[in-house]
Amino acid sequence: MKRILQISLALNVALLAIVGWRRSRETPMPRTPRGEIRQASPGPSNLPVRSRVPRTQPSSPWTAIEGKDSRTFIENLRAIGCPEQTIRDMVTLRICRAYRNRLLEANAESVRAWDYTRQPSRDYWSEHNERQQDLRDEMITTLESLFGQSWKSLTSSLLGRPDWGTDPSEPLSVEARRKIREVDKKYRRESSELQQRRWMGELDLADMARSRELEREKRASLAGVLSPPELEEYLYRQSAAADYVRRNLPEAGTESEFRTMVELALDMEMSDPTGSLPDRHGLMVSDDVKRELQQRKTEFDQRLKDLLGETRIAEQTAEEQVREEAVKQERKARDEQRVQQELSAMAAEVGVSAEDAARFFKRIKELEPTLNQKFKEMEKNLAGTPEEKTKQLGIAIKAEMEKVAVEIMGEKGRALIAKMAKSGG
Amino acid sequence: MKQPAKRKPLLTDLLTMPLLVLASVSLNVYLAARLFRQHPSALAQPITATEGQSESASELTLVPATTNTTSDLDATTESSFHWNEVESTDYRQYVANLRAVGCPDPIIRDIIQADVNQLFAARFQTIWKPPVTAYWQKNRNAQPNPEQRKQLLALDKERSAVFQELLGSKPSQQALIDTLYLQLHGSEQQLLFLPPDKREAALKALAEADFETREMELHEGGRSSPGDEKKLFDEKLKVLADVLSPEEIEEFRLRNSQTAQTLRMEVEYFDCTPEEFKTLLAAREQKAGGKVYTADLLNRTAATEEVRKLFGEERAKEFERVTDLLYINARRSAEKEGVALERIEQAWQVTRDARSAADLIAQNTSLSVEERQRQVQACKEQAEARLIELLGEKASRAVRRDLRTLLGVTEARVRS
Q: Which end of chain A is more exposed for a tag (fewer CB within 10 A), N or C?
């Protein structure tokens, strides 16, 4: 027994030492406390707060500040000097989660009711989207009315993504934004059905007329709930005409130029369904729809030219081309970097150094114009079915790449090309 | 010299030794447990995601995120702390302080997640900052370059490590976005048919297997192939098999597999029973042999033969007609316009006849290329006119488009 005790005591000492050593190594995790720790609200220093804890439950300082509704909770947090940012984070998450649970419950019900031997109908998806949008609107209204700031700014701050906070309707009041959501809801279903028809290439002249009518009705409804300056801001920022200008025309040089362009689009009732063809291939748009779209666009472009002047339109077009070219170049550079990284990773797997992989990539880029020309010529002279031609071309490309690879990295080059071919590169 | 008498051990002595051993061994067990605890988080116990998710009721009222609250409102408690007492310049201490005042774990989790996100925000932005546009400017679809992406991923990992250290688990950023934007997708959407407890368990298993990251990586840049999708789906089934019953796994597969989705599209108008659907799905999966199943909705010969073997001649005949792409598209549009089913059947027959006729013309080498082209063209025009007659201009649009494409291919074959 004594022996056991001795061993156990020795172990006690050793373990204590290790635990102590580990504790001493546990580095602090520095944190910057919220800038403004509020002073406790004036009034009773130890605010008596009605808690929802029954007498039988153990109480804690926190239970005293909990409240059944969010306003009480916020007030209680303010009363103990909790920083505003922390209050916003806590309450926003709590509210969003409660709404999400409602969405989960409702969607789970419809998913369970769905017969999985059938495709869900368009109505199924419409209801699904409608429910989600309704709940989101309600959630946004709740949050914005509690904090007096936009939902976008609340969420972007919580996510640590300040760049996600741009909301075109930000300058409008919380109340105006709520009214806009309510009006939107009235027209949402029909608008999205029309949009859907447009995407499916099913839009006809009657749909286009209905789309313009809906926009007019919506504008009238908004005029009934918003003040004239609020309506004006809305139209410049969020209307279908503003979307049309942003999506389909070269970018305006200034805000005032943009507003001029939107005014014309509003006047001519231009919107995506009534002013532009869906940007998808293979859709059969009827000839009368095409004609009408073309005619409306020509008229709009002419009036815009009259309004801004031919020189300015030419400038806008040139600026847009420069912008598009820059985007194209940026994308190309990004893609090249990605391919190079993937190549480097594959090279490492077959024992080829990153330097050799980079040299190979550079050489292929240099040879690209010549090789492209060569393969184009070769393609013309191939015989057989399209599948056979593709196969023959693939073999030729592989052989050419292998030749370059072996020149640069020796026999390992073959392994790299085989790996590339396997991964579809 | 009288030797001192050997003292008889007292009862207390007899008891002391075992007690000492017991105490010492207990201490060893405690210290060892402390040492080998998996997550030495700042909290006494790791805060689990499930806890965070289960808080907040689904009811209209926003129930506070504490487990010991009920609807009783009869107690009044003094709030006896100021936030100053909770604040700290060290996260571990901050968490400990929050715990000390009784702040529920889900709320601590929320506070820490937001706090750490805001702490890292500036660092993320020094690596890459997307351009912010004014409302009157076009959206810039800017993306970080691969090097920046690598750095952003590394920083994200660092942030996850902080969460792991503080909370004992890594909260998902995507889950946070989904909560704030009120959206449902991916695995969560796929698992909705399950009861909540099973859903939680399944999501937890997938999170532990890091499926979110894997799915995100797969879909990044839209470069995933159907084969990659299938592979990941099969792996998902394996992970789920540990937490779901075989029946639940089967239902998950029937609802969510790519093959099931393709089959649903194929049998949209076949009106099959659940048993028939299961049989067909099994046959399709077997035929695909672990690869991706793709339906050829234009050539129904092989699929119809399979149905003939499985369900007999009568069902096969119906299957051949109603699973043809042109039938599906014609019926979809025509039903919306209220066209009678009989006319839709006739319209399909028109497309079938036109296709057969065009094929015969294309193969007729006794005619010149120009003549064959002219005849295929005439065949197309005739069929289109008949389709408009049967379904109307609007409802026939989709089926005319399909027929035009198909006969266009026949024409191209004549030319080559």
A: N
